[in-house]
Design brief:
It contains 12 helices and no strands. It is mostly helical. The two termini are about 35 Å apart. The protein has a single domain, classed as MetI-like fold (Orthogonal Bundle). About 25% of the residues are buried.
């Protein structure tokens, strides 16, 4: 009887603790998604057209291959950004976890300080660096590489990837470092006692045990950058436009809320499909719980 009463009390506590986040999730995520899904079937954004249901926007999206190609291009750019962030952040996290010592807090603060400033200001700073009057162009002119000042990578796909990698790099280094900190150092000592060289111990012990942090960092970058539109608008130009820019233009400039809602839902479905594929792949990794 006491065990049953204890189980009921635990369930009640869990329900009380989970109710506020569940309500917030429903109000600020699920409910807006439902409203947006309903809007995708409307004929227009305002007036009488808003009350008419139609599938014309779905037909238009299927006919317009430019939207689909841009979505695939944005997925590739998000994957490139995520992979680049992981490759650059892993050595930083490894050094902070294993070799930084007393300098760890100072170096960690130096990594986080740029993230304390506005995201918009950091992107604008890259726009100034890559412009014809920026630091990079002036340096190349001084070194004699360029005969006259000119933009470097500005208004291109590469500029978007560079700015995104810079902006999201700390969000990858932190979860990787946390995963490395949780690793038992005695495992490396055991590997050394068994005659395992350092590089082999890294590949067979350190890297597999850090995969949960790598996966978390990868998702921290991939999910927001897939729908990014601020960075492409500032440094991408025509060549660096992403899917999020078209969605933003449908809502703000074209005032075509049904098409914007539909394109947002398509991006959400695409993201969920990619995450499902990554989650299925994670079950074959030598580490359990990477995506759990």
């Amino acid at each position: 009887m006491r065990k049953a009463q204890k189980a009921v009390n635990i369930r009640n506590r869990v329900a009380v603790l989970m109710s506020p986040p569940a309500v917030m999730l429903f109000c600020f995520f699920i409910l807006p998604m439902m409203v947006m899904a309903g809007f995708s079937f409307r004929q227009g954004s305002f007036g009488a057209a808003r009350q008419v249901l139609t599938l014309e926007h779905y037909r238009e999206f299927m006919r317009n291959t430019a939207f689909q190609n841009l979505l695939l291009r944005s997925v590739r750019m998000a994957l490139e950004t995520s992979v680049a962030c992981v490759l650059l952040a892993y050595p930083v996290a490894y050094y902070l976890s294993f070799h930084a010592g007393a300098r760890r807090n100072i170096l960690l603060t130096a990594i986080l300080v740029p993230a304390w400033t506005s995201f918009l200001l950091r992107v604008l700073a890259w726009k100034m660096i890559l412009s014809s009057d920026g630091f990079l162009s002036s340096l190349l002119v001084t070194l004699g590489v360029l005969a006259e000042p000119q933009p470097i990578l500005l208004y291109s796909r590469a500029a978007v990837v560079v700015a995104l990698v810079y902006s999201w790099l700390p969000f990858v280094a932190l979860p990787v470092m946390a995963a490395l900190d949780r690793m038992e150092r005695s495992l490396l000592e055991a590997a050394a006692d068994l005659g395992c060289p350092p590089w082999q111990a890294f590949l067979r012990v350190t890297l597999p045990l850090s995969l949960p942090g790598v996966a978390a960092g990868f998702l921290f970058v991939f999910i927001p950058t897939l729908g990014e539109w601020v960075t492409p608008a500032l440094v991408g130009g025509v060549d660096g436009i992403m899917y999020g820019n078209i969605i933003q233009s449908q809502f703000v400039q074209a005032l075509n809320w049904p098409m914007g809602s539909l394109m947002s839902l398509v991006m959400l479905v695409m993201m969920l499909a990619i995450l499902a594929v990554l989650g299925r792949f994670a079950h074959h990794l030598p580490v359990e719980g990477v995506f759990e």
